[in-house]
Amino acid sequence: MPMTQRQKHIIVILAIADIIVILALVGLVTQATNTRTSPDAHLSTLTQSPQTCQWQATQLLAHTGIGGTVALTPEGPLRFHLDYPLAPDQTAEYAAQSVWTAFDVALALQEKAECAFFTNVEVIILAHNDRHAAQISATVSAADLAAFGDGELSEEEFLERVTYATNAADGN
Questions:
Q1: Which of 15, 22, 2, 8 is nearest to 111 (CA)?
Q2: Global pTM?
Q3: Where are the domains of the chain?
Q4: Taking a C-beta distance cutoff of 8 angstroms, is the pair 42, 36 a contact?
Q5: pLDDT tens-digit profile of 131-163?
Q6: Where are the alpha helices (DSSP H) in 35-73?
Q7: Those residues with Cβ within 8 angstroms of residue 64's Cβ, 6 or more apart along the chain or in another chain
Q8: Left (φ > 0), alpha (ψ -120 to 50) or beta: where does 68 sit?
Q9: Neighbour-count burial for 141-166, b at 16+ CB within 10 Å, e otherwise
Q10: 36, 40, 41, 115: which could form a disulfide with 53 (CB 3.0–4.6 Å)?
Q11: How far, in Å, CA of 157 to CA of 160, rounded?
């Protein structure tokens, strides 16, 4: 189902807010990396396993306050499965912000060369409350995400490369 113009505007507004989050996450990752002083600690960062990178992504996600899991497959996808409990007056559109938060975490992970081995980013969000339940998904290639993060793609160009899907159901 294609996105409406209103949904695109909401995502663009949320993207601006997420740029701030990206900078904060990059700062966190950089600060954590700079605190390692021994040569052995530096060597271990150069040979990080997918599990270590997955753990780092999970920690970055937790710092944003969003609950969920992260799965990372070398030369495969970086998958986020997020749970978004909606307030009674909220609809699933509020959960769309979580897509950008996950993209921010993926960008921060790409900044670490030893963790930049995933090919695409997949985000699946289950947004729910007593009246609404929806699954929102978004997928983008890691190359497009990196190009956006480096300023090689505008927000509009990036949005055109992201595949979105929504499946909503109303409760009784």
A1: 22
A2: 0.70
A3: 5-170
A4: yes
A5: 778 999 999 999 999 999 999 999 999 999 999
A6: 39-46, 50-63
A7: 21, 25, 101, 104, 105
A8: left
A9: bbebbbebbeeebeeeebbeebebeb
A10: 115
A11: 5
